[in-house]
Automatic annotation (TrEMBL):
Domain of life: Eukaryota
One Gene Ontology term, aspect cellular component: cytoplasm
Species of provenance: Seriola lalandi dorsalis
Name of protein: Tectonin beta-propeller repeat containing 2
Lineage: Eukaryota, Metazoa, Chordata, Craniata, Vertebrata
GO BP, sorted A to Z: protein exit from endoplasmic reticulum
Pfam family, one: WD40
InterPro entries: WD40/YVTN_repeat-like_dom_sf (IPR015943), WD40_repeat_dom_sf (IPR036322), WD40_rpt (IPR001680)
Coiled-coil segments: none
Length: 175
């Protein structure tokens, strides 16, 4: 029985130097040099998404062996949660330390699909750091939780991000 369970799971022990070498160790902010810390990680069959302490999302495409960088414009806010979704289109949700949630609708090379990167931002609903993100199975809803105990649901459409509602508020951190 044990041998059959071991054959089901694949194990990968290869270090990800190609990924880590594409992310800078330091960035220049004015006259200061700031260390870059990797703060969030998610993976799918097509992508590896890495959030950083400087508010930059690094998205590595496994098929093309190419790294893309996406910035959360404005305030340099640490990314605390990342969640990928691969369904009809590829989506990446990002949560930050200030409670901001952004959804990136990625460009698709397939005909008839999204040809331009889109970003949808939701601010002001989370009072603390976003600690958890989860997509519904069909990708129409995004759930986010923060360290103040608030859970928020967003209904996501291809054209706009609408129907935001607070589901639960508790006294404990959401993990």
């Amino acid at each position: 029985m044990l041998a059959s369970l071991d054959s089901v799971y694949e194990k990968e022990f290869c270090p990800l130097y190609y990924l880590l070498n594409a992310i800078p160790a330091k960035v220049q902010r004015g006259f200061r040099s700031v260390l870059v810390y990797l703060t969030a990680l998610d993976s799918s069959s097509d992508f590896l998404a890495v959030g950083s302490s400087i508010g930059m999302l690094y998205l590595y495409c496994r098929r093309l062996a190419h790294m893309n960088k996406y910035s959360l414009e404005g305030k340099y806010d640490a990314i605390t949660a990342v969640k990928l979704l691969s369904c009809f289109d590829d989506l990446v949700a990002v949560g930050t330390a200030s409670g901001r949630v952004a959804v990136f609708h990625l460009v698709s090379p397939l005909p008839g699909r999204n040809k331009q990167l889109r970003r949808f931002d939701v601010v002001g609903l989370h009072k603390g750091s976003v600690t958890s993100l989860a997509w519904s199975t069909n990708g129409m809803k995004l759930f986010s939780g923060d360290d103040k105990g608030r859970v928020v649901s967003r209904k996501h459409s291809v054209m706009v991000l609408t129907y935001v509602c607070v589901i639960k508020t508790s006294y404990f951190s959401i993990i």
